[in-house]
Amino acid sequence: MRTWKENWNSYGAYAMDPRAIDQAQKWLFQFEHHQMMIAEKWEPPTFVTGSATAPKQSGVAIEWRDRKYGLSFYFDGDTIEYLLVGGENGYDMEDGECETFHETLTLWERYAKMKVEGIDAAPEIFDF
What we know:
The chain is of the alpha+beta class. It has 2 helices and 5 strands. It is globular.
């Protein structure tokens, strides 16, 4: 990703932001370490790619997906945004910004629970 220049996606994307790459690498290392420390089985991301939505430079997207459910984190070097998708029709969505690493872990747990129990992403069914 560090070598991806402007138009890396052939749709006019900006060059990759090295801060976003560093931020995503750090987060992924922390996440994997956390899951190993609690002996929790986790699946590697479905894919890690560039995200062309950041202004002036592209960020990094780390995503988990299956048929009905998905969890995406978008790193721009400063913030982490997320999109949680699930439900019978695959259209129930929640998005926002994570301010702490713990918030990302909570989202991962919700995603994992949704997949196992076949529940929707609607936030009102979760107890915070």
